[in-house]
Structures are given as structure tokens and as C-alpha cells.
Amino acid sequence: MDILYFNDGSNYRLRDKRLIRKWLREIARAEGDYRIEQVNYIFCSSERHRAMNIEFLGHDYFTDIITFDDSRLKEGWIAGDIFIDVETVADNARIYGTTARREMLRVVAHGVLHLCGQKDKTPRTERQMHAKEDRYLALLDRMMAEREQLTQSKL
Question: pTM to 2 decimals?
Fold first, then answer.
């Protein structure tokens, strides 16, 4: 399987996994005609995530996502491990005035965008990242609406 979901100190469950996989494949294709070799999403507690941030990145603070990139972009493949702090995502949703689900989807897209080579360390690249997240969330909304229409037409 090219996209897998795990928990590490969290019981979070991402809904609509099949549709999310299809969406992530579309993001990778749109970003550079990349194929997903192996991407693991690991949903973590804040404590576990912060410990990883300290150990691997030397940052002693909470963050919503840590991405370990194993992509081979020149060969057309993306791969990596994406660790998401479920609690920080929920906190950020409150701060930004959105739902926890919507913020989680934004962070899920954010991770795969990093694997596709998108950076976010400067104001310019951060704006680019956010614009792409918005564009791909709109794509997911369309995909969900199409799925709903198909389901309704079968009734």
C-alpha cells in the first residue's frame, strides 16, 4: 500500500481514508507528476511529537507536523514518514476559526506537499504553501461532492 495510517500515543482516526488516498495521489501528480511510493501518516500525542521535535530537529516547542522525507523526486517518487500532533492540530483549528477536521486535512496535505519539494521557511514560500493547501482543500471538497452525487444517484 502506498499510503498508510498509524497511531503513536493517540487514538485519532482519519475518516474517508480511501478518498484521502486518492486526493493525496492527485496532489502528488499535480505537483510534479510524482507517484507515491510509501507515505506513512503517524498521528501522535503532543508529548510524543514534542520529544521527536527535540530529538531529531533540536526544537523544544510544539508543532503540528514533522516530515521525514525519503523522496526521490528526480526519479518521480515521493516517500516519507509524516508525524502529526493531533492535539496541536485541534488547538490550531480553534486559533484559526476552523474545524479540527478541516485543519487536520490541511496538515495532511501540508505533509505531502513537503514530500513534493514545497518549502515553507520564508514568508514567500509560506504563502505559496498556504495557497496550495487552499487549492487542494478545494479539490477535496469537489471530490467529496462528486462522491455524494454518485451515492445519491444510486439511490
Answer: 0.95
| 129: CB partners within 8 A, 6+ apart | 110, 113, 118, 119, 120
Tell me the β-bridge partners of 77: 35, 72
Query: How many whole angstroms from its chain centre is CA 46?
Result: 17
Closest CA to 115 of 84, 144, 73: 73
For the chain, give the percent of residues with pLDDT over 90: 95
Distance CA 72, CA 116 (A): 9
Domains (ranges, CATH) in the chain?
Answer: 3-154 (3.40.390.30)
32: left (phi over 0), alpha (psi -120 to 50) or beta: left
